[in-house]
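Box 4.2: Ligand-aware structure prediction
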Amino acid sequence: MKLLVSPSSPEEAQRSLAADIIDVKKPSEGSLGANFPWVIRAIKAMTEKPVSAAIGDFDNKPGGAALAAYGAACAGADYIKVGLMLNDPAAAAEVIEGVVRAVKDDFPEKYVVIAAYSDYERLGTISPFDMTPLAAAAGADFAMIDTGRKDRRSTFEFMDTEALTRFTAMNRDAGLGTALAGSLVFEDLPVLKRIDPEIIGVRGMVCGGDRNATIREDLVARAIAEVR
Ligand SMILES: O=C[C@H](O)COP(=O)(O)O
């Protein structure tokens, strides 16, 4: 299980370099808020570790999503992550296909991560279980769950261990890796290890509980030690 940490600036990235994957995002622009290309480029230049970039929480705008994905890939991201803030499976498929093609046509070695939200019922968005077959059919690499609304309610409040285990197994059967995130806390690490996704994603955990605070190097070190 790899640890992905989500800094919002090169300064925070500097304190996140012990993580397995450095995930560039702009939390003030949403759960998977996109940061500027020059921030992605600057963070990519700081490390040999894989860099991921969130490109936004998209409704029915496949062209915008595809162009954002291409931009993140050109800026140096190794993983490109898009969130599905929509409900209609046909529209979701269009966004996913656009993002996968935008990345893979020019950068076949890069990974595409498609995220649905654990709190999909309160958001009225597509369920992670309905996303997986669409992501697999389009040739994405990972299916992810995160919370769409960041109000400190955890993914575990919306989906229990059984559902997350089932999601992980479903992805594996479909040839996809799994990434799990959403206000995870240190106490969740033992059960996450049992669920066994390829990646867990955190920000609030390594900010001391408040994702609007700043990332602490000591907490990144503790997280990586406990994940191992
Ligand atoms: O990709 C992971 C997210 O940045 C998780 O953020 P969070 O732990 O604050 O919910």
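In the box above, the bound molecule is glyceraldehyde-3-phosphate. Residues 41 and 75 are 5 Å apart (CA to CA).
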